[in-house]
Amino acid sequence: MNRRTVLAGAVALTTGLALAGCSSSGSKPVLKVTGAFMPQPVSDMAAGFFVIRNSGGASDRLTSVTSPLSDNVTIHESKNQTMRMVSSFEVPAGGELDLERGGNHIMFMNLKQQPKQGEKVSVELHFEKADPIKVDLPVKETTHNPKKQ
Ligand code: CU
Questions:
Q1: pLDDT at residue 23 greater than cutoff 50
Q2: How far apart are CA 140 and CA 72, in angstroms?
């Protein structure tokens, strides 16, 4: 191997490393929350809905939710008209986690107060990989359903 070939090889190697660096920064979840709301509660329980879009290259999981409104916030899956608590929801890479009326939701128990339409409830979403995200859920009328507008 002459000196020129060795140099060419070194250049190729450097370029390869730069590309690898680039794609490893793309293998993180990049999350954005939209369409958040809470139907005005009619008891000491409330539900919350939103969509989490993941434009990153790695999947993530919503693992817990905290809120000043309740010390007992859980994430619920709805199937065949019944709901049950789950430990996490997947937010797939390049996809979204959809919490919507009649489907999966977050559930607030033992509300410290009953928020009214027009108010906002702040929550913090916690993920397996991504940093926590703070979201304000606008309180909508009890029957509000964005899918039916
Ligand atoms: Cu529930």
A1: no
A2: 21
